[in-house]
Amino acid sequence: MARVVVDVMLKPEILDPQGQAVANALPRLGVTEVASVRIGKRIELEFTGEPDLEKAREIADKLLANTVIESFDVRVEK
Amino acid sequence: MARVVVDVMLKPEILDPQGQAVANALPRLGVTEVASVRIGKRIELEFTGEPDLEKAREIADKLLANTVIESFDVRVEK
């Protein structure tokens, strides 16, 4: 079994209210050294044989990310 | 600015209906070599100074993950 990880994040120019909510909560926890928080998705695909990055990219593009507002990154995990 | 990434995934023994829905959709796309799909969160914390993994772990534990059903992993991104 080989694992391919797809990271899906909102594009930098898209507002992330969920991340903003976490960032706003941090000072109340006494954390002042975090300037910003962005929240996205991490998807783990378990391939039965060899990991196929090209196939993973196709899955990400069609099923996992909305490429109008999100960008994704695909990698094999050791 | 230094980026710390927190990956939050459901524990292996917890059912992941969202990942299961994606896995069920794959054969319809002609993908048969993916055995399972798990979907979690990726959170990017931008530190103003040096990245502080201990602080990031505290934030993950208190704000980002529900440790009853989720596990998390914290790392500095180059």
TrEMBL record, chains A, B:
GO biological process, one term: 'de novo' IMP biosynthetic process
UniProt KW keywords: ATP-binding, Cytoplasm, Ligase, Nucleotide-binding, Purine biosynthesis
UniProt main location, coarse: cytoplasm
Stored Gene3D superfamilies: Phosphoribosylformylglycinamidine synthase subunit PurS
Reactions catalysed, as given in the entry: N(2)-formyl-N(1)-(5-phospho-beta-D-ribosyl)glycinamide + L-glutamine + ATP + H2O = 2-formamido-N(1)-(5-O-phospho-beta-D-ribosyl)acetamidine + L-glutamate + ADP + phosphate + H(+)
Compartments (UniProt record): Cytoplasm
Database matches in InterPro entries: PurS (IPR003850), PurS-like_sf (IPR036604)
Record pathway: Purine metabolism; IMP biosynthesis via de novo pathway; 5-amino-1-(5-phospho-D-ribosyl)imidazole from N(2)-formyl-N(1)-(5-phospho-D-ribosyl)glycinamide: step 1/2
Pfam families found in the cross-reference section: PurS
Coiled coil: none
Uppermost EC category: ligase
Gene Ontology molecular function terms on file: ATP binding; phosphoribosylformylglycinamidine synthase activity
Enzyme Commission (EC) number: 6.3.5.3
GO cellular component: cytoplasm
General function of this protein: Part of the phosphoribosylformylglycinamidine synthase complex involved in the purines biosynthetic pathway. Catalyzes the ATP-dependent conversion of formylglycinamide ribonucleotide (FGAR) and glutamine to yield formylglycinamidine ribonucleotide (FGAM) and glutamate. The FGAM synthase complex is composed of three subunits. PurQ produces an ammonia molecule by converting glutamine to glutamate. PurL transfers the ammonia molecule to FGAR to form FGAM in an ATP-dependent manner.
Family to which this protein belongs: Belongs to the PurS family.
Matching PANTHER family: PHOSPHORIBOSYLFORMYLGLYCINAMIDINE SYNTHASE SUBUNIT PURS (PTHR34696:SF1)
Quaternary structure (record): Part of the FGAM synthase complex composed of 1 PurL, 1 PurQ and 2 PurS subunits.
Protein name: Phosphoribosylformylglycinamidine synthase subunit PurS
Biological source species: Longispora fulva
